[in-house]
Amino acid sequence: MTMGKKIIFWPVLLLVLFLIPLTGYSESGNFGLGARGGLYKSNDADSYNVYGGIQARWKLFPAMSVEGAFDYHPTDSYPDNRKITSYQLLASVLFHIIPGARVSPYLLLGLGWYYSQVQDSGGSNTVYTPGLHMGAGVDIPLTTDISFNADFRYYFLNYDDQRVKDLKTDGYIISVGITFFLW
Fold first, then answer.
1. CB atoms within 10 A of CB 9
2. Where are the domains of the chain?
3. Any idea which of 22-26, 54-58, 120-124 has the lowest mean pLDDT?
């Protein structure tokens, strides 16, 4: 594990471990819609970037939820004046470590479909690329019908476009969101 990954891994692990004892409460609804946003960084990108999107969460069982999300990632700049802008459709399974906990830590695993515009000095292409992601997070209920969530995800994404094939485009996302449970 590289130093950068260790810097992110240990605080997230400690946060989850300290929140585990807070048990005894969960939201009343099973399906909710909400908004999300945060920071992301592809390994070879020049800098961090912000993103925003919408999410839907459905509690299938006390220990498992599914999440669907649509995110917009603004233009990422890469070496040699290459740029990628993407819209992402994501599906994730959330495994709640302590079902029914007031503050509910979870592990997640998912698939994504990335609709991206890849640009360089020679022009641009539109590509559709599948990818995987995994991570951990926490749900914190604010009321019986509103929940705050925060998570860290590492995504595995390799574009097959010749303009960026040599780049490491996988990376990580740190996000926060709010979900309004409707029923």
1. 14
2. 3-20+28-181
3. 22-26
Nearest to 152 by CA among 2, 7, 45, 28: 7
Reported as a pLDDT band with limits 50, 70 and 90, residue 100 is confident
Q: Indicate the average pLDDT of the chain.
A: 88
Tell me the two tokens of residue 99. Answer: 């079902």
Token couple for 144:
């019986």
Q: Which of 66, 73, 149 is nearest to 110 (CA)?
A: 66
DSSP 3-state of 81: helix
Longest dimension (CA), the chain: 58
Eight-state DSSP code of residue 79: G
Amino acid at 14: L
Q: What is the pLDDT of residue 183?
A: 85
State the number of CA atoms in the 13 A half-sphere of 131 facing the CB: 27
**Percent of the chain that is helix, strand, coil (3-state, to 5):** 10, 60, 25
Write down the CATH number for the domain with range 3-20+28-181. 2.40.160.20
Give the pLDDT band of residue 22 (cuts 50, 70, 90).
very low
